[in-house]
Amino acid sequence: MKTNGCDEVAVKMPAEHQMTITSRHHFGDSIDTPDSFSVTIIENIKEEYGLFVWPCSIVLAEYVWQQRLRFSGATVVELGAGTSLPGLVAAKVGSEVTLTDDSDRHEVLDNMRSMCDLNNLKCEILGLTWGIWDVPIFTLHPEIILGADVLYDTSAFDDLFATATFLLQNSPGSVFITTYHNRSGHYLIEFLMEKWGLKCVKLLDGFSFMPSRKASGLSGNIQLAEIVLNCEPAESTNT
Predict the structure, then answer these.
(1) For residue 81, what pLDDT band results from cuts at 50, 70 and 90?
(2) Is 164 exposed, middle or buried (0-12, 13-18, 19+ CB in 10 A)?
(3) Whole-angstrom Cα distance, residue 69 to residue 161?
């Protein structure tokens, strides 16, 4: 069965995992061309969020593929990676990738390891809870930070932006690339960027660069933003 331009295959699992499937996602004009490839994802639709490939992940993964020369050789961290499609595509095109998700979501972290093995990729797997300053976060120096649909829970926005800002500060010249459903308007994200000393340097309609075969299976108002530190000095308030 094909959905969102990918192949889905049911997998027989023990009774408690009967909802597990694999989906195969193709990148490139044709799977037969030299630079084309596919990534296999293990999904469990019983999970609330972390083990399902959401549309924002498909859009961000396609962007990584189209920007593959930029990603080749780069150090990449994916925040809230879940099924990790964008990060796995980055690894496929030559990035040094660290996949992260909430430290308490052991089943998601284990699934990441299984997918790396399944796709014959070597990625670091790291439990990273937004807004928590555990030792591992201080070891990360990404040139590119990825986040697909990480802007879905407004109560977590500050912790997410705190974490992204720290990583940007820890890696001068780095960029945070995120895709999100524009559910409540870009103004909220603009407010948070200003609060955390960030600025958006690119904002795209997610469907503007998607191949028609993939876009036809997606819905929603998906946007892609590239966010960096705002190094411009604040305007004087003296009168």
Answers:
(1) very high
(2) buried
(3) 27
Evaluate whether 211 touches 27 at the Cβ level (below 8 Å).
Answer: no
Helix or strand (DSSP H, E) at 115: helix 106-118
Residue 63 in tokens: 């962007």
State how far the Cα of 170 lies from the Cα of 74, in Å rounded to an integer: 15
CA distance 139 to 160: 18
pLDDT (tens digit per residue) in 178-200: 999 987 567 788 899 999 999 99
What is this structure's pTM?
0.89
| SS3 state at 87 | helix
d(CA 218, CA 211): 11
Q: What is the pLDDT of residue 48?
A: 59
Taking residue 144's Cβ as centre, other Cβ atoms within 10 Å add up to 22
Judge whether 196 and 165 are in contact, CB under 8 Å: yes
**5: how many CB neighbours lie within 10 A of its CB?**
19
Please give the share of the chain, as a percent, with pLDDT higher than 90. 71
Rounded alpha-carbon distances, angstroms, from residue 79 to 35, 85, 98, 163, 171: 26, 12, 9, 9, 15
Rounded CA gap, 231 and 179, in Å?
A: 23
DSSP characters for 185-214?
-HHHHHHHHHHTTEEEEEEEEGGGSS-HHH
